[in-house]
Amino acid sequence: MDLEQKIEKIKEYLKDKEVIIAFSGGADSTLVAKIAKDMCKEATAITVDNGVLPPDCISNATKIAKEIGIPHEVAKYNLLENDTFKSNLPNRCFICKNQMYSKLQEVAKDKKIDTIVDGTNISDLLEDRPGIMVNYEKNIVSPLVYAGFTDEDVRKTLEKLDIHYSTSTTCFATRISRYSEITPKKINRISYGESLIKNMVREGPVRVRDDNDIARIEVGNVEKLLNMGILNHINSELKAVGFKRVALDISGYGESGKELVVYKPCKDEENKIMFETELPYEVDIKNTCSELKKVGSVKCSEQMGIAMLEIEGRNVTVFKTGKIVARRVADKEDAENILIDVLPRIRRKLE
Q1: What b/e string do you get for 179-207 counting C-beta neighbours within 10 Å, with b at 16 or more?
Q2: Alpha-carbon span 170 to 308, nearest angstrom
Q3: Phi, psi values for residue 283, rounded to 5°
Q4: Which of 14, 259, 285, 333 is 20 to 30 A distant from 74 in Cα terms?
Q5: How does pLDDT run across 249-293, given as a tens digit for each residue?
Q6: Phi, psi (5° rounding) for residue 178?
Q7: How far apart are CA 22 and CA 177, in angstroms?
Q8: Closest alpha carbon to 278 in 293, 295, 256, 294
Q9: pTM of the entire structure?
């Protein structure tokens, strides 16, 4: 399916619907908001201020919504009042997303709107994002997943439509290493560090990660900081707000660009084409099998940790470890199209 077909698919899906959009102002939710504004009977963008967002996140979202021309509101709650969230366990993002979408459900109920949509895309399903499980539990709709949009598809479409979006939408809690308590002090020093460095690099993403009191800096253009005067200034400023050491990640910050599938030749069967991908989490085989039965014939073994799906003559095998193998496919595009059907059916195990 080419990009134009994907765009038409999402337009057709959103046509004449009444929706609430979980809107951060980032690339994904901005694209959904733009298409919803053009195609929906009624669409409202809601930005949830959870108390741990970058200071410019809300203002950027407001500005972008205005540029799109879609009604926009801000709903507030404070994650730092949630002790389970502050303990920063691996399911932290699940807790955050659960609260956020509960808040959106309250807004939707007040507006008498049944459908909440978000900007989750297919590439997100390849990443370690436990919060996506909330989408399934609360019936949050992800139009970009439905239409098969990848990260690259989203960026290309926004560029084609000449639509601006924010590169600073992830909450500060994502900068703090797991099991290290999330505190106002840590949030504030991360916020200060990122603001300081943004004023120096002027454009592109900036991240200051708190790795157990070590500030690890990531920027889109590392060369902007490669000056001893600048580095010494950053070092002294960040130590002044409580970091013990300061490190610059010279690999910088950027998109992972992970492919949906990679080709794996079959050694013993030259005429068989095989593609695979690896998920960074463990799969719940029992629940995944239940979902896969909605799209094809399934054989499962919880004991062996494997689910085998037959769909339109193709074979897809899902392993408990997270590996997914597609066999008897025509080519890479065919494998990707099958994976677009399969990925939303995968259910992960939550730690």
Answers
A1: eeebeeebbebbbbbbebbbeebeeebbb
A2: 36
A3: -95, 140
A4: 14
A5: 988 776 556 788 888 776 665 556 789 999 999 999 999 999 999
A6: -55, 145
A7: 26
A8: 256
A9: 0.91
